Amino acid sequence: MNRGRLIAGIGLRPGTSEADIRACLDHALATAGIAGELVPRFATLAARSAEPGLLALAKERQAELVAIPDEALKGFEAACATRSTRIASLYGVGSVAEAAALAAAGPGGVLVQSRIATARVTCALARTAS
What we know:
Elements: E1 6-12, H1 18-31, E2 41-45, H2 52-60, E3 64-68, H3 70-73, H4 85-91, H5 96-105, E4 110-117, E5 121-127
Parallel strand pairs: 1-2, 2-3
Antiparallel strand pairs: 1-5, 4-5
C-alpha cells in the first residue's frame, strides 16, 4: 500500500468559509477511509491560493499550501476520475481538485479519493509516490 504524503486538492469559489472547506476536506478523508489522517499539503489554483478561508484552514492544519498555475492543471486531465463541464470550459480540466492534488503529488502520485463536491468547495486526495 502506498504510504506517501497525503495531498488535498481543493477547488473553491471566492469567499468560501474556512468551515465549509474543513467540512469538505473531512468528508473526503472519511469517504477514503482515512478520517483523521494528517494532510501536510493542500493544493489549489494559483488564483485561489490567497483565499482567507483556505489560508486559515492551512494554518490550522499546519499544511503547506501549494498554488498550481492554471496551465499546469491541463496535464492532469487524463488522470481525473470525475468531470465538471463548467470547470472543463474554464480551466481545461475536468476537476480542479483532482488535478491540483495530482500536480502537487508529483511524478508517480496517485489519486486516493476522487472529487467530493459541496455547494462552494471540492476536495480530492492524492498521495506522493513515496
